[in-house]
Amino acid sequence: MSAVGSTRGGSSFLSALLATSAFATIVAGGAAHAQAAQTPPSPGSDDSVVTEIIVTGSRIRSEGFTAPTPTQMLGTADLERAAQPNIFTAITQLPSLQGSSGATTGTFSTSSGQQGLSSFSLRGLGTIRTLTLLDGQRVVPANVTGVPDISLFPQLLVERVDVVTGGASASYGSDAVGGVVNFITNKKFVGLKANVMTGVTTYGDNHQWLAQVAAGKNFMDDRLHVQVSGEYDWEEGVPAGGFGEDAPGSRDWYTTATLVNRGITNDGSPQYLYREHAQAYQYTKYGLISSGPLQGTAFDISGNPFQFQYGGGGVPSKAANGAVSGCYTNGGFCVGGDLSGNVGVGTSLQSRIKRLNTYTRVGFDLDANNEIYATFNAARVESSNQPNPGAATTGLTMSCSNPYLPASVVAACAANGITTFTFGTSNALLPRNISVHPTRTQYRGVIGADGKFSALGTEWRYDAYFEHGENTTNIHVNDILLTPRYRAAVQATLVNGQIVCADPVARANGCVPINIFGGQRPSDAALAYITPKNGPYQHSVQKQDVASINFSGEPFALPAGPVSLAFGGEWRKEQYHVQGDPYGDGNTDSPNTADYPADPILNAAGANWFAGNYHSGAGKYSVKEAYAEVNLPLVNSDAVGRANLNMAGRWTDYSTSGTVYTWKIGATWDTPIDGVRLRAVTSRDVRAPNLSELFAAPVTTTLPNFTIPSNGKPPAGQPSSGSLTVLQNVVGNPDLKPEIAKNVTIGAVLSNPQWLPGFSVSVDWYNIVLNGGISSLGAQQIVNFCYAGLTQFCGAFNLNPPSAFVNSQTFNLASIKTSGFDIESSYRFELPSVPGRFTIRGLATNVHKFVTNPGIPGAVAVDSAGQNSGATPDWKVLAVQSWDNDRFAISVQERWFSDGRFGGTTTEYVECKPGSCPVSTGSRPTIDYNHMSGATYVDVSASYKFGNGLQLYGKVDNLLDRDPTPSPQTNTGLDANPALYDLLGRFYHLGLRYSF
């Protein structure tokens, strides 16, 4: 246990003290961002860098222009101080970024395809609603959901990252509902710089090695600019723990925290109980008879039977349903007892990463004001993770005549008059655990031109580019069960004195029996049969083409100043195709390839693997867009101040869903009060459905005992009642429309007042309402809604045998409403008696509400603000205090978020005590304990410059080794939330930088 501990019962005094310090920093200020060749922007604003006139929150490019949309900025010094092998990790520490994906998220997954994928999420709205740009340009997606992988960006040449914390669809198009993250590179870098770094956790794992180098040189009288960069990053990852509560390394915080479902909703007591050390009683590490007269008979590693120790004094009922008295039937949990078979901690805490990246930019000055250029980025990231150990299997019907069964159990079968029993196992007998290996390879090329020209008596700026990008993702899953073969191999029998597989068809096609009772390692032949070398496989390719041209100028002036105008157009094409392996994908005939030979016991429809059943598909769409933006100076006087009105509109035509319009209206007012600026902006923003939602590869599953509503209104030609077997086809929906969002932000900025030079603070209130959110429905829901009179769902099924089916699709049903506050402050100062400069910076985000309504009849909207099991705590704070001079620099950083509660996107738990609980419902279930302590993480960094361009630096993340607070599952999964909490522990970084 760490020095501070997990503070599960409430925040410790030290955590509270540090949290108070962090809030004090918000008030006092934080690190300013003045760089050597740029003017520092006010906190929370997007004042342009004078040398480049880049304003990410707007298309207007004009000196002195101030956009009304708040923007948070991280400069080179901030990124270097973070000392991370992937600058994505440094950026996601900003409080406004909530729910981003990275190397520590998704590691429990086999089939998602997003392991190791670094993508941003602003405002908790998800990675699909945040637009990420590189030098203001779109980047080819690294996943069919349309999101890029930040780890594939060239990182050493990034000199600034702008995070626009408001809707920006009118300026940049689709996906900018939550905002925009724009990486701005140094396009004129001359010289050489390099960076090497290593790191390791206090537990001796996740060793890291990073090497980066960049060079730039001018030729032809400084008209030709050439830049190249390359980097190699290797991160060992944190390997999975084992079975039971054996966390990786010497970590001891894992406690199998679980929400136990009593299954009773109306007796005045809580339906759910928070419990640690939960035990699933349907399986054990080496096998358990889980129902019937022999229930409770477990097997040790040698295959010897013994009486299983149920937690909570549980006693097996010996009934057919496998109930255990003293335990909880719903979910099948006891508390305590023999936990050795639990599998939740057997998940990688961080994926293993190997990353390679190269980048080249060549620019040529046609004259002093115009440049043509080309860039090329080639990058690859390989990752691997373990989603769980073994492959826990329950509900197996085993024969008492199985020759591997101990004689005492065979005799017990006979004594109790049974010939079969129900069996469950963690499959710890498998020598190797499941591992997932995604590899993403990206090629991206851009040719473009930018500069300025004179027309109509004024100067205009322009930029134009064409981009083509391709991302190839290959996913391999190793050592995973091929389920039909596994089920055949565990059913053994004797034939002519030899133990063989009982199914003659399986036997004729290579089945090799395994002994499932105990921990005896299967033979190599058996392993090759149940976990073939050629496991689940997916090959996908995403392609993107973009052509864009933009103009900005000041065509005329009003009494208050020049009018600024920007306009332009864009064409974009997105396409993908994906191919899964035959055993997972399925086809009309049995698979018959060299790697996946035909096998009659496999399901020709696919879904044969324990997990990782990838499916084939393809799709494409194109977009045409045009926009205009104008900034009108309204007043400019000493008495009234300076006020501007900023407006923009965009016309967008999708090949799939037609035309949609977006707009924004905003204003800024620099008041006569010293340093005080007011700003407000409202916008209509969109997110177009992505390729996966439109053209998802079909996944077919069989639903037995599907119920036809008997009290509804069946559509013509459909049955009015009954029960039957149907095929559920999970497919894309090409008729989806864009999601529509309304954004409002109102704020005030105090910047560099005369009474406190160097101090700035901003406060902004935001409100986002998203309608037509894309969400999915299950087969039963679709049929029920149709029979209830919602005719829009009636075309998705046919319930007439023998080919009854339901197409489970996504629809524009959901809505999200979120609001809160952003606070940012900075203060840079010097003390007469102390050499060097002090800088303080603080950022905070409050989520007042985050209400999700699934849009389904009868469903209740849920407010997930403050649910620390998710990504939107009530408060999230980043505070930095630093001091530096010409050689030394030292900084302390606090990352803090507030206490919260359990919950989900469709559930909001109601805490109550026995005897006082209301009736528990699906969206408002009752619970006996509903508290998740927040966390404070302290990071310390220091550096020393030797004077010859060499700098030594070091950093310690999570100095106090703060353990994660349990985030209980309703099963025995990993009871921690990597979206908020640090799962790795104290981390040491050490590196060298060189610049010349």
TrEMBL record:
It is a multi-pass membrane protein. One of its GO terms (cellular component) is cell outer membrane. Residues 67-180 form the TonB-dependent receptor plug domain. It is found in: Cell outer membrane. Its main location: membrane. Gene3D superfamilies: TonB-dependent receptor, beta-barrel domain, TonB-dependent receptor, plug domain. Residues 442-959 form the TonB-dependent receptor-like beta-barrel domain. Pfam families: Plug, TonB_dep_Rec_b-barrel. Keywords: Cell outer membrane, Membrane, Receptor, Signal, TonB box, Transmembrane, Transmembrane beta strand, Transport. SUPFAM superfamilies: Porins. It comes from the Bacteria. Residues 1-24 form the signal peptide. Belongs to the TonB-dependent receptor family. This is TonB-dependent receptor. It comes from Caulobacter segnis (strain ATCC 21756 / DSM 7131 / JCM 7823 / NBRC 15250 / LMG 17158 / TK0059). The lineage of its organism: Bacteria, Pseudomonadati, Pseudomonadota, Alphaproteobacteria, Caulobacterales.
